[in-house]
Structure formats: structure tokens, C-alpha cells
Design brief:
Blueprint lengths: L5 E5 L1 H10 L6 H10 L4 E5 L9 H10 L4 E5 L3 H10 L3 E4 L19 H13 L3 E6 L3 H10 L3 E5 L1 H7 L7 H21 L3 E5 L6 H6 L12 E4 L1 H10 L1 H12 L3
Helix pairs in contact: 6-8, 7-8
The chain binds pyridoxine-5'-phosphate.
The site of pyridoxine-5'-phosphate has 19 residues, from strand 8 and helix 10.
């Protein structure tokens, strides 16, 4: 069991649906519990500075009620760091954040933000929070993450996933192979240096398979943890639609 990679389900877009209308539903805890029942080993949420989906109260409630670990994706911003130190999620994943982006674009610039990231890691670790750094799959970024004291790295797989989805036209297939090889090499180095090798961003039900086939020298899955959100929430909208319609028909048919 422990040899299988862990799935962390990112439930940001459950909150997106709620924020679109300002309704009290869908309930985040109910969503998290459904993921847990299905075998998720962690719940991941991104408390963005603009609070476009996850709210402070969501994090507090999940922290208080969840049975499985909570992974808080967060920018290296003073207000958010103070909040994380108070809430003490099991993991914090430090991510770069731009207000206008649709989703997290690219990994952390460790060179430029070195001091701030190092202090943030120390503050979080002192509070008992383990820290992963969301980085591009580059060997330099792995070495720097290790120097900065990260417990794990989360490899940004966005470029690989885009290539697999054909986003670079005729160059896509070659690009996907190159990106997969970068993921393999960087994850191997991360593990060699004693850090956890996590991966996330852009995965769908097809492109994740080639990454899941990567093995370490002991023939164990190379990537130990996946954090996946959008594809799961999209799939849930389809495979759960039938039951949702039946329940509404039952509601309007009440005597
Ligand atoms: N990991 C990190 C660090 C992220 O920023 C995101 C997007 O919020 C994810 C994983 C999940 O990405 P996706 O929704 O594309 O599966």
C-alpha cells in the first residue's frame, strides 16, 4: 500500500463553483470527505491572495475536521505565511503567484527570491509544517531547493502536460518526450538528495500515465505524490451528473 503513489486532490475548483454564485454550496468538507472515501491520501487547496476560490474559513474548517493530511498551496506573501503558521497544515507547498493568471504559471524563481523563501521555509518548519517547493523540473532548481532546506519538491508538470495535449503543434510529441525525461532526471536527483518527489499541474487521465510508469532504481514509483485538481473536478461533473439530476427530479416530485 505504502509503495503506491499518494493522490492529493486539489479541490479549489469546487470552491470556484461556489464563489461564482456566492452560494453556501457545494460544501468543501463534503467534497473533501468524498475524495477521502475514494482513496485520496491528501486534500490540497490554494489560498490565493485574491481569494478567488478558497477562503480562509475553508482552510480553518478543513484543518479542524479532515482526517487525512491537508496541503496548503501558498504564495510567499507575509499575510499568507502568518495565516499558515497559525493554521499549521500538514504541508505547505510554496508557489509563485500572479494576480491576473488563470492558474499557477511556472515554478518558483528560487534564485531571485532565495532569502525570502529560505526564511519562509524556516518559519513554517518551526511551526511543524513540512514544506515543498513548486519548481520547474530543472536540476539547478532541485539543488537549490535542497540547499534551502525543502522537505520535498513538487515538479511543475504543466509544460509536459500541454505537450501531451498537443499544444505545441507538430513539435508536441518530441517536446513531451523531452519534458518526461526532465521529470525523470529531476525527480531522481530530488530523491537522491533525500527530498520527496511530488508532481502536479495539468495532469489529465491520459498524460499522467507515462509519469506514473517512471521508476526509481529500486523499481518503486519515482513520483511519490501527485496533486491533481482540474481534471478530477471536470470528470466529477460528468460522472456525477446522472445522480445529481435524479436527486433533483426526486426533490421537485416531493408531495
Ligand atoms: N499543484 C500546484 C502547486 C498547483 O498550483 C496546482 C494548481 O492549483 C495543482 C497542483 C493542480 O493543478 P491541476 O488543477 O491542473 O490539476
Amino acid at each position: 500500500m505504502s509503495e503506491l503513489p499518494r493522490l492529493g486532490v486539489n479541490i479549489d475548483h469546487i470552491a470556484t463553483l461556489r464563489q461564482l454564485r456566492g452560494t453556501p454550496y457545494p460544501d468543501m468538507l463534503e467534497a473533501a470527505r468524498a475524495c477521502e472515501v475514494a482513496g485520496a491520501r491528501q486534500i490540497t487547496v490554494h489560498l490565493r491572495e485574491d481569494r478567488r476560490h478558497i477562503q480562509d474559513e475553508d482552510v480553518k474548517r478543513l484543518r479542524a475536521e479532515l482526517e487525512i493530511p491537508l496541503n496548503l498551496e501558498m504564495a510567499v506573501a507575509d499575510e499568507i505565511v502568518r495565516f499558515a503558521v497559525r493554521q499549521k497544515p500538514d504541508w505547505a507547498c510554496l508557489v509563485p503567484e500572479k494576480r491576473r493568471e488563470v492558474t499557477t504559471e511556472g515554478g518558483l524563481d528560487l534564485g531571485r527570491n532565495r532569502r525570502k523563501i529560505a526564511t519562509t521555509i524556516q518559519k513554517l518548519q518551526k511551526a511543524g509544517v513540512r514544506v515543498s517547493l513548486f519548481i520547474e523540473p530543472s536540476l539547478d532548481a532541485i539543488k537549490l531547493s535542497h540547499e534551502l532546506g525543502a522537505d520535498a519538491v513538487e515538479l511543475h508538470t504543466g509544460r509536459y502536460c500541454l505537450a501531451r495535449q498537443g499544444a505545441f503543434g507538430t513539435r508536441s510529441a518530441n517536446q513531451a518526450s523531452r519534458e518526461l525525461e526532465r521529470i525523470r532526471k529531476t525527480a531522481l536527483l530530488a530523491k537522491k538528495l533525500g527530498m520527496g518527489a511530488h508532481a502536479g499541474h495539468g495532469f489529465d487521465y491520459e498524460n499522467v500515465r507515462s509519469v506514473a510508469e517512471l521508476k526509481d532504481p529500486n523499481k518503486m514509483p519515482l513520483i511519490e505524490e501527485y496533486n491533481i485538481g482540474h481534471a478530477i473536478v471536470c470528470r466529477a461533473a460528468l460522472v456525477g451528473l446522472e445522480r445529481a439530476v435524479r436527486e433533483m427530479i426526486s426533490a421537485i416530485s416531493a408531495p
